[in-house]
Amino acid sequence: MLSDQPAWYVIHSKPKCEHLAAAMMLGLPEVQTYCPRIRFQRNTRRGKVWFLEALFPSYFFARFVPAQSLRAVRHSQNVIRIVDFGDQMVSVSDRVIQLIREEMDGQDIKEVQVDMKVGDTVELTEGPMRGLKGIVNSIHSGQDRVKILLEFLGRESLVEVNASKLLTEQTARQTLAGS
């Protein structure tokens, strides 16, 4: 028997379609959605690029009364399924949703800074040493200049480069988890 009480459920969506599925579902009567996303800048081989991703890739939350809206939610555009355990839908407590909203500072999209720190492995993205990897030795004048230890032609050398020319292996998710 389906519950006649509203509750939050985890919705599995098609990849990279979480926000689209959540937006489409908002058009359904008596259905709320929550799709937290992170926005971050990453150095790539073509320079700094902004990325926008779901906090939980391929998943978002929907609050609805299963007895009234289950069929509409299940068959909503870009939805794969409602997450269940042993064919039993399991709700997410309001407290968990509240904690996620607090971690997101009350925003649907939170900007995350991916900072470089001493000891990080980085890759040069520009210049004659492009593609070489090194280890951050020190950071100078904010985040503008970085000294990295490079192994080049059989010896280690300290090289000072502009931080914008480095690709870090740290991800925005690791940064968010560490906050």
Automatic annotation (TrEMBL):
CDD domains: KOW_NusG (cd06091). It comes from the Bacteria. The keyword Transit peptide does not apply. InterPro entries: NGN-like_dom (IPR006645), NGN_dom_sf (IPR036735), NusG-like (IPR043425), Translation_prot_SH3-like_sf (IPR008991). Keywords: Transcription, Transcription antitermination, Transcription regulation. Residues 7-101 form the NusG-like N-terminal domain. This is Transcription termination/antitermination protein NusG. It comes from Prosthecobacter algae. The gene is nusG_1.
